[in-house]
Amino acid sequence: xxxxLSLLAAAAVLxxxxxxxxxxxxxxPTHTFVTFEIGHFGTSTNRGRFDKKEGSIAxxxxxxxxxxxxxxxxxxxNTGTPMFNQHLQSxxxxxxxxxxxxxxxxxxxxxxxxxxxxxxxxxTLMGKTQPVTLKATQFNCYDxxxxxxxxxGGDFETTIDRTAFGLNYGVDWGxxxxxxxxxxxxxxxx
Length: 190
Description:
Number of domains: 1
Shape: elongated
Radius of gyration: 21 Å
Strand order of the largest sheet: 1-4-5-7-8-9-10-11
Order of helices and strands: HEEEEEEHEEEEE
Structural class: mainly beta
CATH superfamily: Lipid/polyisoprenoid-binding, YceI-like
CATH class: Mainly Beta
Number of helices: 2
Number of strands: 11
Distance between the termini: 43 Å
Helix content: 10-25%
CATH architecture: Beta Barrel
C-alpha cells in the first residue's frame, strides 16, 4: 500500500512537472500603452502617450524569473495636440530625428508570492541608459477566451529624473525634473 502511494505521488509530480515552464509572450499592442505625466508650472499635469510599441517577454512563474524587451517609437508621441507633439519630437525635447527609439530591457523580476511586484531593468532614452524599477500596481495571467491562449500583464509605474537622459528643456523655468511613467502591458503566450 505504501509503495503504491509513493508511486502515485511520484507520478503526480512527474505529470505536473512540464506544466509550469518558461514561456515566450508577445506584447499585444492593442492592450499595451506607455504614458507619461509631468507637472506644468504647478497648476496642471501634461500627459501623453506613445502610440507605437513592440516587444517580447519570457516568463516562468514557477521559477519566478523573466525577461522583458520593450521598444517604444518615440516619434509616435501623442498628447492630443499636434503642435505639442511636434515640439516634443523636436531637438528641444526628445529629438526623435536622432533618437527615434526608447527601450526597456530587464531580466530581473521580483515576486510577492506568486505575483510580480516589480521589474528591475535598464531604460534607454535619448541614447542614455539608466537603471529603472517598474513597480507593479496589479499583475495577473488569465486564459483569454477569444485568443484561446494565456495572457499575462499588469500595470507598472515608475518616476524618472528626465535630466539623467538629457531632457533638460524648461528646468530653468521651473518645469519639474521628475516624470511619471505608466506602462500598461498585456502579452500573449506564443
